[in-house]
Amino acid sequence: MRVSRLMLVTLRDDPAEAEISSHKLLLRGGYIRRISSGIYAYLPLLWRVLQKIEGIVRQEMNATGALETLLPQLQPAELWQRSGRWDGYTAGEGIMFHLQDRQERQLGLGPTHEEVITALAADLLRSYRQLPVSLYQIQTKFRDEIRPRFGLMRGREFIMKDAYSFHASEESLKQSYAAMDLAYRRIFARCGLRAVAVEADSGAIGGSASQEFMVTAEAGEDLILTSEDGRYGANQERAVSLPPPAVELQQSPCQELATPGLASIEDLCRVHGFDPTQIVKVLVLVARFAAAPAQPLLVCLRGDQQLNEVKLANAVSARAAEGAGALLEITPISNELLAAEGLAPLPFGSLGPQLDDGVLAGARSWQQRFLRLADTTATDLTGFVCGACRSDQHLVGASWEALLPQPDQRPQSLDLRAAQPGDRCLHAPEQTLLAARGIEVGHIFQLGRKYSQALEATFTNEAGSEEALWMGCYGIGVSRLAQAAVEQHHDEQGICWPTSIAPFEVIVVPANIEDPLQQQLAESLLTELLDAGVDALLDDRSERAGVKFKDADLIGIPWRVVVGRDAANGQIELVQRQGRSTEALAASALLEVLLPRLTTERCGLLGEPA
Amino acid sequence: MRVSRLMLVTLRDDPAEAEISSHKLLLRGGYIRRISSGIYAYLPLLWRVLQKIEGIVRQEMNATGALETLLPQLQPAELWQRSGRWDGYTAGEGIMFHLQDRQERQLGLGPTHEEVITALAADLLRSYRQLPVSLYQIQTKFRDEIRPRFGLMRGREFIMKDAYSFHASEESLKQSYAAMDLAYRRIFARCGLRAVAVEADSGAIGGSASQEFMVTAEAGEDLILTSEDGRYGANQERAVSLPPPAVELQQSPCQELATPGLASIEDLCRVHGFDPTQIVKVLVLVARFAAAPAQPLLVCLRGDQQLNEVKLANAVSARAAEGAGALLEITPISNELLAAEGLAPLPFGSLGPQLDDGVLAGARSWQQRFLRLADTTATDLTGFVCGACRSDQHLVGASWEALLPQPDQRPQSLDLRAAQPGDRCLHAPEQTLLAARGIEVGHIFQLGRKYSQALEATFTNEAGSEEALWMGCYGIGVSRLAQAAVEQHHDEQGICWPTSIAPFEVIVVPANIEDPLQQQLAESLLTELLDAGVDALLDDRSERAGVKFKDADLIGIPWRVVVGRDAANGQIELVQRQGRSTEALAASALLEVLLPRLTTERCGLLGEPA
Fold it and tell me: Do residue B281 and residue B219 come from a single domain?
């Protein structure tokens, strides 16, 4: 390939639309162009990268025995209604684009394919003899993101590899899950990425266990917490830890304390000398469901702890009434919301766990009782400070027993707190959790029977009776992975592609294409490289050498062969993009020097220490 | 690969949903499953076929120098508004699925990509030095078909290869168009398809010239007309021919004739002894536009001729007022429609070219003058029979001059008739047009500057001034091609895939897998074939031999190696799917016999006489 035929358009300046390095570099290097918010054209250079990534993914998926298939992008609403996800994906978070066809039937644009594949499995899989079986596809997916950003990182149209496995038993599911875990580690290593596997929340996909693969990078949207020994790692959404011990509260019995103007825990502690761990703070929120009245929530946390919203949403979903439908959102209750319900304002800043359900009496559309939940750091306190449920009044020396004498009035105790960097590890309290930022490039799930039961996908087991299939699902963000690679591998001058996924492995740059000697040598080196199976590019443009070097650095080809003035003596220069080390050598020695290095680099990080 | 791991589910009976052979066979062979109307899952067997087709398409596209890319499927309405196609594709024919995102912006699901690629070209292409350049993609496209049918033939979601070329001159466009024509012929031949190239209407895509590639098959939706010498071929939508000569009308001068109850040309001729070629028939229709009042049409044809609706639509579009927007539809005028406009009924059956614009006076929403068009077979008549514009009255011996004394009242004369099989050819009147049915698998267009002007995609030419890019576009229906191959290559027992696109080239079938000798020999033949680079499959199921043979015939693997009782003597049977010829041979000779045949077959029809 020749640069003159590549439609290469590079930009000197950072485009205004981009915030993070990888996004800037992909735009500047002529890899992508924005067509609409969160929607990009993949230009020929990026397409080469994507094809290489897809090639690696295919090889490793095929090696697990998975079969490639292609499922529709347009999916009938009816399948999503059967699984109970239509409302949550359209009216709720609303991340599924949806439309009506000319017959006024509702269709969704697939963000994922559990429903379609389970409906197919119900048709095709009948007997344990056909199991286990895995299917995968590489396909463009859609999400109507609230805030599309960072280029391919959080787009509205993106390429995914999604796989689904079907099993006769949970045991078999766990085996395939483990095999996928290994395949994923190989895929990311072969792509030249440093990725860590962490425990994850299963979110809207559901199921019993799930694990994310995170490419570590400063610009990552996710916070990962890992133990020093590396034995524990989790997305903060999911992470658990030991909280710091609470400072015991001396004062008792319970007394009122006037706290005018002290609405924050910080102020309360500063003025009255409390420690935040001695305080129970109360959040009131309201959960909206697809098919049930909104449910007010009263959530208690120890004063020094932060709410983990994902844990709360999971807890609320798990406690929803039968038929309530999808949990659409949880929002804080404000005095505006209360007024809209025809309810009196609340003394925010002075709320306590004893807040009576009477404050909800007569609500227009809400349930009239709180769902009461508390983090165990709060319920573990025996004496504490909390609001008195009257403006500018707190209670000091309160206790659960005294505030709420009936045990059934007390909140359910569970893990609702956000683990923080510096917290002690559960598995080894002498270690603390370290923080890193990550870009999620893969996620694997043990789905269990959630979808097979909803869509009646059953098989005949060895004993001859019908049971629901066990399922797993396994995703890789292919286009996001390409950008994550740039985020992890770049410098001031541009991209430093790992060789295994670079658009080209080698670029031959004659310093002066008008010099017949240089041109001739460059052409013959190109031919030699191509004949040796090297993915090589020739910069045949009549640009100044500096421009061509800058472009080569920007687009990030791993090896640059410079044919300059020494061409007359058969001498060339070999420059490695990563680290920019340079060596002079005879043109005749190029293959001998380069091929062994390429052979190693094509394997990515396989064999390198983790 | 082994059949037991292939999730193969074949059906004995024809599924009720399928009408044509290829659709039935793809369902029965476990290639596809319907998910929604016109929307199919491509199961692993079909995916292998599609990948082979895509491989051939990629090789031939790359050989032309085209660059592979991937453009978004979700396209902003704004681009389609700029090209003037949004209304026609949504409100008009309505074949573009469209939706609103959470910001209430309109997006369309791409049925084609002229707008997106032209917007990109406007950004990336600046100078004649970058030209010519061609880009292509292989991608799922969407059409909200009125009548999805025949499986992958007319689906609502389907795979296309679409390519777009950009040029500094029409000359250069024509060169690329010719190169694509050749590439297309190679692609279809390599896929093992007999395809013919025919002139085509450019339809909603537009441009000056276009050519379709038709796979000939009885079940084809298109009627193709070709000359006996093969020098002329066209889709009926576009075809031209010499009409039969008219029989001269003796009677003159013009007289009225009472024709009670004779509303059809057939009746009129039967009762009064006219020849249909002596009659001018009049159609009144109304054309609806996106941004202008509806335009009534008065169309004259010779009595023996049929209207070509595509030619009429093109003529009406070309004559629409500036700013009228897309032509949405043309429908016949009925007395119901007239009443809705507040107009008096018309004497249908007795209309003539002299019908006065006064009948439109006071129309509520229509233009109040007819657009008058006539086929040249009608305007060429000097004396003719036509309606008198009064019920049950005709005129005999009418002439254009007498009926419409002012030349500007007379209709514009042009080609509006449908060419018919048996018509004489324009290029060689001694030959007649032959009819064949075809499945359109490719279509190439010289777009000219239609899109580049609308989207302001310009370049600086050698003289230093800005001009609009010249464009071509080139499509192949990849998933439709797969089914067209089945339609052209099947028999009573099932599919007979051309080797180059078969899901597997060879299937090894041990008659009895429980026989260790048979099993062993079958396994070693599988290994031998795989090692020789043959795409081989082993039927390792413990089914009866008859079941396995039936399945192999149904799914259509080109070569079957049967390992039966003679395995003990090292003897096997080699069966060719197409034609079912059988030969016994030594297992040790298999590669020697088979490899040369496969090598030839992998080239498809290349080298075979057309």
Answer: no
CATH number for B380: 3.90.960.10
How close A101 gets to chain B, by Cα (Å)? Answer: 7
**ipTM for this model:** 0.90
Half-sphere CA count of A584, side-chain side, radius 13 A = 7
**pLDDT the model gives residue B251:** 67
- Contacting B residues, span 111-150, partner chain A, CB-CB under 8 Å: 116, 119-120, 123-125, 130, 133, 135, 139-140, 142, 144, 146
Provide the pairing of β-strand B470-477 with B571-576: unpaired
Q: Please list, in sequence order, all residues whose beta carbon lies within 8 angstroms of the beta carbon of residue B327, skipping any fewer than 6 positions away.
A: B88, B92, B287, B288, B289, B313, B316, B317, B320
Query: What pLDDT digit, counting tens, does each position of A332-362 carry?
Result: 999 999 999 999 999 999 999 999 999 999 9
Query: What is the average pLDDT across A71-93?
Result: 92
Is the CB of A72 less than 8 angstroms away from the CB of B40? yes
Mutual angle of helices A44-63 and A478-488, in 10-degree steps = 110
- B61: which chain A residues are within 8 Å (Cβ-Cβ)? none
Residue B24 domain flag: no
Give the global pTM: 0.91
Identify whether residues A316 and A397 lie together within a single domain.
yes
Are residues B165 and B288 both part of a single domain? no
Look at residue A91 in the predicted model and tell me its pLDDT.
82
Counting as low any pLDDT under 50, the low residues of chain B are none
Cα→Cα distances B231→A241, B187, B227, B427, Å: 80, 21, 6, 9
Worst-scoring range by mean pLDDT, A195-199, A208-212, A383-387?
A208-212
Task: Decide if B449 is inside a domain.
Answer: yes
Indicate the residue among A487, A504, A521 that finishes a domain: A487
pLDDT value of residue A273: 92
Domain check: are B134 and B164 in the same one? yes
List phi, psi (to 5°) of A591. Answer: -60, -45
Most confident of A270-274, A424-428, B115-119: B115-119
Structural domain for B270, as ranges = 255-414
B362 with B271, same domain: the answer is: yes
Answer whether A47 sits within 8 Å of B68, measured CB to CB: yes
Q: Is A543 a domain residue? A: yes
CB B363 within 8 A of CB B341: yes
The last residue of a domain, from among B383, B414, B445: B414
**Residue B1 CB-half CA count within 13 A:** 23
As a whole number, mean pLDDT of residues A148-166 equals: 97
Q: What is the tally of structural domains in chain A?
A: 3
pLDDT digits (tens, 9 = 90+) for A506-540: 999 999 999 999 999 999 999 999 999 999 999 99
User: Are residues A498 and A482 both part of a single domain?
Assistant: no
- Do A409 and A442 belong to one domain? no
Q: What is the pLDDT of residue A251?
A: 67
Q: Which of A41, A68, A97 has its CB closest to that of B101?
A: A97
Report residue A545 as tokens.
């050498």
Mutate to test the interface with A, among B42, B61, B74 (most CBs of A within 10 A): B74
| Cα A374 to chain centroid, rounded | 28
Q: Does B42 touch chain A (CB under 8 A)?
A: yes
B67 in A contact zone (CB under 8 Å): yes
Residues B165 and B273 in one domain: no
- B202 or A220: whose pLDDT is higher? A220
Residue found by looking up tokens 């396209």 in the block: B75
- B609 domain residue, yes or no: no
Cβ distance of A50 and B70 shorter than 8 Å:
yes
Whole-number average pLDDT of chain A: 95
Specify the CATH number for the domain of residue B594: 3.40.50.800
Nearest to A480 by CA among A527, A445, A432, A439: A439
CATH number at residue B474: 3.30.930.10
In contact, A558 and A496? CB cutoff 8 Å: yes
